[in-house]
User: Fold this.
Amino acid sequence: MSAANESVTQFERNARAALEESVRRIDARTRSRLNQARHAALAAAPRRAGWRRFTLMPAAGAVAAALLVAVVLWQHAPQRTAPAALDAPRAAVVEDMDLLTDNDSIDLMEGWDGPFYEWAAAQSDPGGESRG
Amino acid sequence: MPAALHGDVDLTDPEEQTRSRALNQFLAGVELKAFKIAQAALRHEDDALDAVQDAMLQLARAYSKRPPEEWKPLFYRILENRIRDMQRRRTVRGRVMAWLPLRHGEEDDEDFDPVAHAPSQDPQPVRQLELEEAVGALEEALQRLPRRQQQAFLLRTLEGLDVAQTALAMGCSEGSVKTHYFRAVQTLRAQLGELS
Assistant:
């Protein structure tokens, strides 16, 4: 390396030291403003999250639609438990159904023999028709 | 600063976190030197801050997805374009203002805050004095350089870009970079000696 080149290198080294010192001497206000500018730039950088949100929109819409359908079906589904006000009439209907399906009661009604039952009652009653 | 604090970064995406952290680290590493380069070109602190801020924004918006090793020459290319735009506007504004009556002190009406403008470091006094003299002399000499020579010198010496990166940042050939740089060094040496 020639003396001239070596001299240039020494000059560059000194110049770099002086320039780096000038950078170190940048005041706090300027540093703060540069810091704010950097964060503003970082906030402005495009995010892949934005694309992800965009690509997830159809899926989110499908889930929302499914939920809506489920709610509508649930609202119109037949009730398994009746309201309390309907319990009494339904119980009476059930009792009538028992009477109608009771074979013994029907036989009794069909074979009703009024005079016989009246006579039998008088026989068992000591102060009844036999005394009269 | 951790990436988790940057706006609406997707914290669940490690790749996004890594990129945001790398961009933050890159910008933090160049912002002060970029400011000095812009200040040398524009000779105005607020204009230099605006130029650096614009360059940061444009890099983040348009080139943050590029490989990080491309960021530095791209950033300085953007900064150079921004500086050139501001210089053009200033030239036009200067021509218009030349027709208007001069108002003294209109740009220096802000109160000077000695605390805010205090140097951030406190080196040893003797070395500090030498450095201050060298810095002052170099900054003055740099401002007298032609713009392309100044740019080539600062990108190579202060920012440490190689010839190819400097050519990309300046938008010229590597041969032109070598020429501008050589002339800058010759001129500065003639004015300042060895700066020892």
Remarks:
- The interface with chain B takes residues 7-8, 10-12, 14-31, 33-35, 37-49, 52 of chain A (CB under 8 Å).
